[in-house]
Amino acid sequence: METNNTLPVIAGVEIPVDSEGRYNLNALHRASGEGQNKAPGQWLRTKQAQEFVSAVEKETMQICIVSVEGRNGGTFAHELVAVEYAGWISPSFRIKVNQTFIDYRNGKLQPTTITDPIIAALVHGLMEIDGIKQQQVVIVRKTEQLESRVEQVELQHRNGVPQGYLSRSQAHVLHGIGLSSEVFHLALHQLEVPTTPYIHHAEDGNDVATFAYLESDIADAVRTFLNDAIQVTRCMCESPLLNGRRFRYSK
């Protein structure tokens, strides 16, 4: 079994190129001999890399970074991006990569042949491992983005009630109509007024999960409660919603 290879080779490692001429960054990393701290995923997280990729895409009007899953997959990048990544690894590696790419484009590279089937299988195995690692990087990145969004939502609801809502105490103060707190919240419970959870930062420094009412729901509930109440004396009402329980309120 022979595997003919006319792709660019750096430090004995062939660099796959996709149909759009983008180079495999995972193969470049392997050719550099550096550890995981110089992996493509680490570089792509930096602000410098993100700004550079954005600038190249704007200039070339091309998609400069793609992720390919499965066999022979990985992160493929536009030549300018690949060279920039190589420079991030080391200046000397950048020179070597740049010259190899130039020779490859000009057709000056000599074809190499992998005649040992064991080595050929090993190369393909390494490419599959790189593909799996790249998928893990994508999963980690998406997880980080999700965690960031959750944290932002929590911060919006921290140390205060969400906009348009009232806490239990606020609801009682603003719409309690003279009822005791116990009777007021019992009425809301009987009327099945929906609640929404939020995080409250207590005085002892701990975060406490609590809930709030939508203010418009409170107003509607109070109106329903009073409409159903029966005036029994000048200052006393009786509520069917509270199983005939009486409370001080003059309609």
UniProtKB/TrEMBL annotation:
<protein>
    <recommendedName>
        <fullName>KilA-N domain-containing protein</fullName>
    </recommendedName>
</protein>
<dbReference type="Pfam" id="PF04383">
    <property type="entry name" value="KilA-N"/>
</dbReference>
<feature type="domain" description="KilA-N">
    <location>
        <begin position="4"/>
        <end position="104"/>
    </location>
</feature>
<dbReference type="InterPro" id="IPR017880">
    <property type="entry name" value="KilA_N"/>
</dbReference>
<dbReference type="InterPro" id="IPR018004">
    <property type="entry name" value="KilA/APSES_HTH"/>
</dbReference>
